[in-house]
Specification:
Chain A: Belongs to the ABC transporter superfamily. The complex is a heterodimer. By secondary structure, chain A is α/β, with parallel strands linked by helices. In chain A, about 35% of the residues lie in helices and about 25% in strands. In chain A, the strands form 3 sheets. A 6-stranded mixed sheet of chain A has the order 6-7-8-3-9-10, sandwiched between helices. A 4-stranded antiparallel sheet of chain A has the order 2-1-4-5. Chain A starts with 9 loop residues before the first strand and ends with a helix. The two termini of chain B are about 25 Å apart. Classes of the chains: A alpha/beta, B mainly alpha. The complex binds adenosine-5'-diphosphate and magnesium ion.
Amino acid sequence: MSETTQKPILSIENVSKTYEGGYKALKNVDLTIQKGEIFALLGPNGAGKTTLISLICGLARLNEGRITVDGHDVKSEFYKARGKIGLVPQELTTDAFESVWNTVSFSRGLFGKPKDPTVIERVLKSLALYEKRDNKLRTLSGGMKRRVLIAKALAHEPEVLFLDEPTAGVDVALRREMWNVVADLRQTGVTVILTTHYIEEAEMMADRIGVISKGELILVEDKNELMRKLGHKELTIVLQEPLQAIPDNLSHYDLQLAEDRMSLTYSYDTHAERTGIATLMRLLAEDGVRFRDIVTKQSSLEEIFVGLVEDGQ
Amino acid sequence: MNWHAVKAIYMFEINRAIRTIGQSIVSPVLSTSLYFIVFGAAIGSRINQIDGVDYGAFIVPGLIMLQLLTQSISNAAFGIYFPRFAGTIYEVLSAPVSAVEIVLGFVGAAATKSIMIGLIILATATLFVDFEIAHPIWMLLFLVLTGFTFSLLGFIIGIWADGFEQLQLVPLLVVTPLTFLGGTFYSIDMLPDFWRDVSLLNPVLYLVSGFRWAFYEASDVSIFVSLSMTLAFMAIAMTAIWWIFKTGWRIKP
Ligand SMILES: Nc1ncnc2c1ncn2[C@@H]1O[C@H](COP(=O)(O)OP(=O)(O)O)[C@@H](O)[C@H]1O
Ligand SMILES: [Mg+2]
């Protein structure tokens, strides 16, 4: 990675947030995002995902720590910093009586860009909204409203797009649709930061994943790296006869004997040069252990995540 | 300055007003016509001149002020309260827009609308009574300054309000009484001394008085006192709004 040569598009340094009333929603968060990345902020409800986005976008007051967008401080250079950001909020909030075209054009003006129908047209077409451009927002379905919010956020051609829980409370079809939208965004080169508490969603869309729990960013890792580091497979060997103990010549294997002594489970790294499976089988045969079946199981990111959140407690 | 944003907010608000143009204009024009019929024609015919002006003509500036104040406050309050209530305010707050630009957009639109209504009422008044405007420029100046000042006040109310009832509360409980007691329908010289002195504490008196001077050169207080008081209200309202944005009161947690 060229992390040292590239200027980060987003830099969060030692950011904490204490709400009035004393609740500490974020604790010393550090995060750097590179241009063009798709980053997923993964965490359960109330972890502080929306709070972090609100601090970046200026919806909540930043009192502790520093945030820059493409090098511009979000407080002292808020014109420049915010101009680079598009935000799609968690809640579906739209002006019921506006038309699609007008509301998207409004957003472009609000972000300081001159009128440009070709941009609006391109954005609407990319989100399959062009046919609906004259429709009033209240006549649209929930999925379309979400896309209108994305169109509004893209109308000023931002470099960073925040999608706060883009698929919360939507059905499977809409979720797939959203995954496709993000895949299309990747082609345009815009940096996408999305939040979710669906693990498969982070796995599906993101290049990098940050796990946030109780206001702390407990891990940030390249998705594949995360899989490699933590991803392991389990091989379960179902035995024909109960085994009293693990034979001595297998002691250096990561083996576990089930309580009923009818199966052995072997944990191994799927990415290791040698998984050791062939030797294990040979040694088992030498020891006269006979087996009926073998089953392998891939640990998904979901299990990793559950493990992480438990570790964090 | 982000002028594109000011224009976007301003036009958004103006378009909203145009969509509901019927109700925005019909109700103030209707109620003002009723005042003319009841106070001007029915009662006014039994009242002689006040300060050398026929009663029907005397109440014209006061009635315009009454509508200007209530319209300014309710337009501006609703304009900023509704996006807060609906949640769409997030977009304005996350945009590269300063407090000054937000206020120019929202308050400018509310003031425009109420000033328009004021002018429409002025035109309506010509149907009921004969009058001439001695100082049209001063008249317009007071109209604009007052419309803007009370739109600022409405903006503050719209940020403070937690529900639709509170939006109605201030115009109903504060502005209407102050306007009625501020010499809209009479000269405070007609009051006993004690109540005359109490009236001088009423800020709206200075607005109505200055406005009436622009029409008839007749006023309860000097035109310069009126102008200074109007500017003072404006400064107070601007300070309050500056404080709101500085602290994020009710808008940024
Ligand atoms: N305006 C606020 N005032 C006080 N507490 C808040 C406010 N907004 C959020 N919180 C609290 O901060 C925590 C994190 O909230 P949030 O950032 O919305 O979490 P997430 O988006 O991860 O679900 C929650 O416990 C929430 O109750
Ligand atoms: Mg959230």
